[in-house]
Design goal:
single chain, alpha/beta, Arc Repressor Mutant, subunit A, 5-stranded parallel beta sheet
Length: 401
């Protein structure tokens, strides 16, 4: 590799670094142990993984030449390879390397393991598709790495991102016991419910600001890219299977929340039950769907889901200009809770969190009739700024991370 070859990708790195703002940082930035030698960050397309890496480099290194960032989906790798690049960098004193979009690089897992084992003072941070099943890989990275999952923006982050309000995340237990106190502090900022409506439509992805009025068009394109590009990069699937995944996504988008009849879905897709379930779980991991099951999800043992939602409310509007109000509420609360908690389907009510806290979701006039007499049960009520007792405003579930 020549100096001119190297400068081609270094220019991309420096340009991205120069254009990265430090004004807003995602919740996960302070949760990551950046001192670990091998860090993996999984996340859906568009949630801000690249920006996260660039911000950390900008904050951690006064001299950008002490670190290096590269995206492994770059055309540069058509005529060069990752091992060659790392050898070049290491020989010039670079000990911190940031690899973006690793799932696009053949045998990336084996190569990262070998680099980790070969260079004892090399620090590697990589990002990849949320579909990556690293624990199930033929190459064991689990005992070497610290792995994180990055979600879309919460309502709390949306408020901070748009300079409306800055407020620390609330723990789940604190939400249950002190929601009135926090709601009174937060709603002192006027127009909160209007901001919440905007968040439901276009607040989950940081790129919504630059996309402007084209946001939902671009989001639909992102979903299409996940199916056409990321799925084949992670799973061993054929072109025909990719087309079935696209058809499955559209069927679900038109019927959310879908209470699935797996046999009928299989007939629609002209495929087997195993293939249908595999596609459902892949789209769930990809950040396009959420599946509600009676027991905590286990991607090693695929069970029939009881309900299927789109992964967030922004996707609902991307696929349809009008979203069902009840489904919108359920999608929001499940999306926010799943980041740090287990959410399953109870016998009564809408969701049970961590196997012990029951929630029924509804409008302002919702009462406890459907969950009367059940211990640890709460209402999540829409169109309400401040709750009372076990009635918690729906928007407050967006303050959990």
């Amino acid at each position: 590799m020549t100096q001119d070859d190297f400068l081609q990708i270094k220019d991309v790195y420096i340009t991205r670094l120069r254009n990265t703002s430090l004004l807003f940082k995602r919740y996960i930035h302070k949760e990551i142990n950046w001192n670990a030698r091998l860090i993996g960050i999984k996340g859906a397309r568009g949630v801000g993984k690249t920006t996260l890496l660039m911000q950390h480099i900008k904050m951690a290194f006064k001299n950008p030449d002490d670190a290096f960032y590269v995206s492994l989906d770059s055309y540069w790798f058509q005529s060069h390879n990752l091992v060659e690049l790392v050898q070049w960098l290491y020989g010039r004193g670079v000990r911190h390397i940031y690899l973006d979009e690793v799932h696009k690089y053949p045998m990336w897992c084996q190569i990262v393991k070998d680099l980790y084992d070969t260079y004892s003072d090399l620090y590697i941070v990589y990002t990849g598709s949320s579909m990556l099943e690293i624990d199930n890989s033929k190459v064991d990275l689990s005992r070497r790495q610290t792995l994180y999952s990055m979600a879309g923006m919460s309502f709390r982050e949306y408020l901070e991102f748009n300079k409306i309000l800055q407020y620390e995340a609330i723990t789940f237990d604190d939400l249950l016991s002190n929601h009135i106190y926090h709601a009174m502090n937060i709603t002192a900022s006027r127009g909160l419910m209007l901001h919440f409506d905007k968040y439901l439509r276009r607040g989950v992805y940081p790129f919504s600001r630059e996309a402007g009025t084209d946001f939902h068009i671009r989001l639909a394109e992102v979903a299409n890219l996940v199916v056409e590009s990321d799925l084949p990069a992670v799973e061993d699937v054929t072109y025909a299977t990719v087309q079935k995944a696209k058809r499955l996504l559209m069927v679900i988008a038109q019927n959310v929340p879908l209470v699935p009849n797996i046999s009928k879905l299989c007939d629609q897709l002209e495929t087997t039950r195993d293939v249908c379930l595999k596609l459902l779980y892949a789209l769930d991991r990809a950040g396009l769907l959420m599946m509600l099951t009676k027991t905590p999800k286990d991607y090693k043992h695929l069970v029939n889901p009881q309900k299927i939602y789109l992964a967030n409310t922004n996707l609902m509007y991307a696929f349809s200009p009008e979203a069902n109000v009840g489904t919108l509420r359920e999608t929001f609360i499940m999306n926010q809770l799943e980041v740090k908690h287990s959410v399953t389907l109870p016998t009564d009510g809408d969701f049970i969190v961590d196997g012990k806290i029951l929630f029924e979701v509804g409008g302002k006039g919702k009462d406890f009739t459907q969950i009367a007499g059940i211990n640890n049960s709460y209402l999540a009520v829409a169109d309400t700024e401040i709750g009372d007792g076990n009635r918690i405003p729906l928007w407050m579930f967006g303050m959990l991370y």
